[in-house]
Amino acid sequence: MDDKSYPHLLAPLDLGFTQLRNRVLMGSMHTGLEESRDGFKKLSAFYAARARGGVGLIVTGGFSPNFRGRLHPLSAEFSSARAARAHRVITDAVHEEGGKIALQLLHAGRYAMHPFAVSASAIRAPISKFTPSKMSNRQINKTIEAFARSSELAREAGYDGVELMGSEGYLINQFICKRSNHRYDEWGGSYENRIRFPVEVVKAVRKRVGRDFIIIFRLSMLDLVEQGSTHEEVVQLAKELEAAGVTILNTGIGWHEARVPTIATQVPRAAFTWVTEKLKSEVNIPLVTCNRINTPQVAEDILSSQQADMVSMARPFLADPDFVVKAEQDRADDINTCIGCNQACLDHVFVGKRASCLVNPQACYETELVLTPTAKQRRVAIVGAGPAGMATAVAAAERGFEVDLFEKNDHVGGQFNLAMQIPGKEEFKETIRYFTRRLEQTGVNVKLSHPVDADELKGYDEVIVATGVQPRNPKIPGVNHEKVIDYQTLIRDKVQLGQKVAVIGAGGIGVDVSTMLTEPENQDLDSWLQDWGVDKSIEHAGGLYPHDEYVSQRQVWLMQRKPGKVGKGPGRTTGWIHRKVLEKRGVELLSGVSYDKIDDQGLHITVEGQPRLLEVDNIVLCAGQTSVEVLSDKLKAMNVNVHVIGGADVAGEVDAKRVIRQGIELAAKL
């Protein structure tokens, strides 16, 4: 075993009373299993897999210390001996694999989605329906006691520590900032008074749990909201937290109501490590940095340059539970990399569904989506090596099937080859890299530049058709005009367009194309931060400052037939980012459009009953996809066992999350 490639990442961390086996913290993620029936059994399998994979310290999803602190009325609470007993199954499973685990205690404050919400002041959050009640002195003291009691119970439940959620705009953060604390008693007014609540919480917890118990405090080091903290204030609070008994300070970036992206795939890798570095020389306890760290090399570079003492990764452990073990064995190429898409994790949790992972549908389904060895050797043919075909081929080969994968092009990857060329979606090439590697390792026979017909497939035990989609050609008079190009041709052939472009169709692909056409060239981290108005000195409150936004020289119109908001894209938690980027770049968004005709003058449309002529140089078609799948009918007629998956099954909006899961589920059932 060779671990010389990442010496800093894999070095143990001595906390005095205990030692962590490396510098990797698995950050807190809510999975939805915390509240589901039989959820703890599934959750224990989920965390055990990550402990077995080598994580130094795991932090659970957030549990509320009392009823009012719950995020939703039915959210998980941790405040009774009964809860402590129920959690034993989790801590035991992690300890059996040699891991350590801390329970996150999170009080939602004004982010609570119920009428019992409380906060420092009665100020409604812009992302909530409920105005919180202002907490009385008695309620504040009882909440401090609730944090201490829950921490004591966490110790009884076998946890190695707790993480106190003091960032992201939750209750503790709400006391700290003027934005949400308008009090004039001992809990508000001056900064000293506003930070009294977090400091008293830590003191009470430390007193209750003793010295040999990890207390992580998630400190909001960059609020990214108006009336947030300055760097000077963050330093002052960090020193007081250290004095009060915190073991580790974890970095929090941005409130949930902040209008700066912090973890989406558009955010450059390790975009906020400079924030942690600014605090590094001010305290003597270990600091954890976070956000968009998704490879061992990125993590190693952060630690070797002494920007932090530990790195926190959350979503990368959904993508690959064996991330650390693979780094230890110098097998970084074998890691299934998180692409930061949010589509199966945050987007699911946001609507109350169980979290999983687009590139690893087995995440949070460890006890259900199991690839058991096949009882009898069978031959499987898969037609199409896009995301669905590749995922199915690897899963079937893992089970022991003999798999042939046919692809008409000279490369694998399907639509991901287009996606990875969109600015901010470069990570998609990592998924192609991972699956290409797994196809090789599992012995799949990949036949490139090999169109296949029914006759060639009739000898297989199972045939899986995953031939993907092609752009839909809308029936608009003049649609074959030389100004018109479809999105696949545009991206694949890197066609140069004029300065005035109309984009027909405002789904995920239309949004991506509009972004690609208006994005500044060669944007580095500093210019990205500047573009979003992030103040690297954090002298301005919340780390935001007035700034000029980059407006594209190219004029783009993005249109859709249906009325309502344009440019949301597919993601629940990232839709606002897409819209904001398009607005920043000066893209004109039009809804309720009917397309009349295309001619030498340009695109003739009608909007709200008014005719308009867009005198454009080019028109890009992003009006959905169609499947051209005809193979399955021929195979059925020949009595071949045939399955149709992915875009060949449902064309619609391109949905990698659906097609990869569908492929692996099929492979598990064969």
Summarize the structure.
The strands form seven sheets. The protein has an eight-stranded parallel β-barrel, surrounded by seven helices. The chain has a five-stranded parallel beta sheet with strand order 15-14-13-16-27, sandwiched between helices. A five-stranded parallel beta sheet has the order 18-25-19-20-21. It is 31% helix and 17% strand. The chain has 670 residues and is α/β, with parallel strands linked by helices.
SSE inventory with pairings:
Layout (H helix, E strand, L loop, with lengths): L12 E2 L4 E2 L3 E3 L12 H14 L4 E7 L17 H16 L4 E5 L12 E2 L13 E2 L2 H20 L4 E6 L4 H6 L14 H4 L1 H14 L4 E9 L8 H14 L3 E6 L19 H8 L6 E3 L6 H9 L5 E4 L2 H4 L3 H6 L17 H5 L28 E5 L3 H12 L3 E5 L9 H4 L8 H14 L3 E3 L6 H4 L4 E4 L4 E2 L12 E3 H7 L6 E5 L3 H11 L6 H7 L23 E5 L15 H10 L3 E3 L2 E7 L2 E6 L2 E5 L3 E4 L3 E2 L4 H7 L4 E3 L11 H14 L1
Parallel strand pairs: 3-4, 3-12, 4-5, 5-8, 6-7, 8-9, 9-10, 10-11, 11-12, 13-14, 13-16, 14-15, 16-27, 18-25, 19-20, 19-25, 20-21
Antiparallel strand pairs: 1-2, 17-26, 22-23, 23-24
Protein traits:
FAD/NAD(P)-binding domain, TIM Barrel, 27 strands, eight-stranded parallel β-barrel, FAD/NAD-binding_dom, 22 helices, OxRdtase_FMN_N, Aldolase_TIM, alpha/beta, FMN
